[in-house]
Amino acid sequence: MFRKRAGAAAGAFLLATSLALTACSGSGSDDDKNSGSDAKTLTLWHYEGPTSAMGIAWNKAIDIFKEKHPGVTVKFEEKSFEQIQQNAQMILNSDSAPDILEYNKGNATAGLLSKQGLLTDLTDQATQRGWDKKLSTSLQTTAKYDDDGIMGSGKWFGVPNYGEYVMVYYNQDMFKKYNLQVPTTLDEFTKVMDAFKAKGVTPLSVGGAEYPAQQIFYELALSKSDRSFVDDYQLYKNKVDFHGPQLTYGAQTFSDWVGKGYIAKNSAGIKAEDMGVAWEQGKFPILISGSWWYGRFASEVKNFQWGTFLFPGNQLHPGSSGNIWVVPEKSKAKSLAYDFIDITMSPEIQNLLGNSGGVPVAADAASITDPKNKELIDNFNKISASDGLAFYPDWPAPGYYDVLVAGVQGLINGSKTPSAFLDEIAKPYNENLADLGK
Amino acid sequence: MTVTAPAPVTSAVPEIKAAKRRNPARFAILIALLVLLLLVVAPLLVVVLNAVKSPADYAGNGPLSLPSHLYWDGIINFWNRVNFGQKLWNSFISSIVVAVLGVVLSILNSYALGIGKVKGRVWFLVFFLVANVLPQEVLVYPLYYLSKQVGLYDNLISVVIIFTVIQSAFGTYLLTSVYAEFPTELLDAAAVDGAGKWRTLWRVVVPVSRPTLGVLFTFFFIWTWNEFFLPLVFLISNDNQTVPVALGVLQGDRLMDATTTSASALLGILPAMLFFVIFQRTLTRGITAGAIK
What we know:
The structure holds 2 protein chains of 2 kinds.
Chain A: H1 9-20, E1 41-46, H2 53-68, E2 73-78, H3 81-92, E3 100-103, H4 107-115, H5 123-128, H6 131-134, H7 137-140, E4 144-145, E5 155-156, E6 159-160, E7 163-171, H8 172-177, H9 186-198, E8 204-205, H10 211-222, H11 227-235, H12 245-259, H13 272-280, E9 286-290, H14 294-300, E10 306-309, E11 319-321, E12 324-326, H15 334-344, H16 347-355, H17 371-385, H18 400-412, H19 418-436
Parallel strand pairs in A: 1-2, 1-3, 8-9
Antiparallel strand pairs in A: 3-12, 4-5, 6-12, 7-9, 7-10, 7-11
Chain B: H1 7-20, H2 24-51, H3 55-61, H4 73-82, H5 84-115, H6 121-133, H7 136-150, H8 156-180, H9 184-192, H10 197-208, H11 210-226, H12 229-234, H13 243-247, H14 258-287
Helix pairs in contact in B: 1-2, 2-14, 4-14, 5-8, 5-11, 6-8, 8-11, 9-10, 11-14
Keywords (chain A): Signal
Protein name (chain A): Extracellular solute-binding protein
Pfam families (chain A): SBP_bac_8
């Protein structure tokens, strides 16, 4: 439509400022800014749907909080992901900042805000309340940020309640129909896909227009990697050779998979949502994507039996902690916020999170009742315990997500050779390194 | 979308009569218009289809299938989840205030520029035109700091002020060209009858140009209603949010809830469409309003 003629708004505020000369400039006492234990309200924001595992668990956490703090009112607001993503910096810098909120982990989000001094240092709380014991090393990576806002070391600025990881979802009915077994090595996995291909079935549902395709590429690169490669790539420990064995294998194998027809040529234009729905409709037997689909598949897939397995043969998997709780520097009820985080880390809430189809970070696996959820959590605990979370390929540089989407699309439709693709993605990565002075 | 959607309907009606006359050329045009109509309406139909479909049904049969049964929970849940009634009220009150103030401001500006022939009015118009084409993203930070200073951050008043100015910039631009052509006979007659400038404006100019003002009012209302970006930035508390911002709640990080999103989209466009249907006659009258007897 023909709007977007925003303009003249600047004039609006000339008008507004003249009004303001008469109005008083609000604000005042923030003496109790640091303690906040006598605060009577806790303003809490998050952006998880009420029926998601996190939504269910956190609503329960709010109830428990209210029981433990009878005199305190909790002002909960469900926000949109986009509103927080776009405006967090502006909101946290104003008097409208909440006392505690869910925020995205990563250098470009929580890291940036911590660097600007908008988030509260949680290091003391983490050690006193034992959060550092409950979270494994690879989960703590996204909780800590250094003075430059780079994750992995430094002070605690956030606390994750849940984890996520990439796995393989498969249609058990279709596996049974063609008499196939769950593969345990990459070789067997290739044979399974060959078998589907031989019957005229494209094995993989892939969304090339969004994140899923690059995660497959990364998963393949990880099959030849160890922890030191991940540290180099994600935490800039050493310089990454984009034509080294790991990334070359990832790009080459991905391109081979397209050539052999495991990945359909038209998937370059498919969005993640359509990828998921196509798999739910039984059009493809296999889907490689993250645990965020799990709850949805569990409630929506009625037409066939399905299961999951970890990407065969890999020690490292794309995945990380989920989003984190952060306490804004302007929070007026900091100690209440710490209490709330502590409740979300308690076994009761963590188990509820697990039983609702989420991936808790500190649950007691024995008290997860549903066998499917148990499998999901056991797999996560396996990865997390062996320090196997390798984060996501688009994390290292700002705007890298779009670079990878475009690059992998080139691999899918054959317009780029694996080597050209690697050159293309190396450039922004190295430019970012230069910006960081590394 | 909502503004353009019903237009083919009205033009299609006379074409049906024409088809009865068995004129092949007209018949072809009718077909073309029907195809066009279908293209315009198709997305809306898909939205309606999915709004009343259960998530499992959507997952099993895809977005284009007919729902196996009518499923209203999506709409009801969404309404309760975001407290939609209040969002409607916020949107309505801010849009109506912006529409009224925007029209009044446009009238005053254009009276000076179009009829009053103020010195340097071309430059004023150029300024308004430039203001119209500036993208909103450029303005966000200055507006944010100003509104914070004034204490109007997270307040509907800030959005009302901003959009009154934005809309009236466009209104001034449009209305000035209308008033520049205003019949001088009427103005002279008013002057002979002893009307002052103020009286002439409200008793002669405004009544004569009422159809054009009606168009401006309708557009201002719908434009303000549909605004997303600045309200997203300025209306932080859920209690202050407008309808388009509330719809954003459903867009997650990685997942999209297609059926609830459709339900919310339906709820979101209905009021603007309703408003358009009610004021549609004003619009068509306003377009032919240039001619003065």
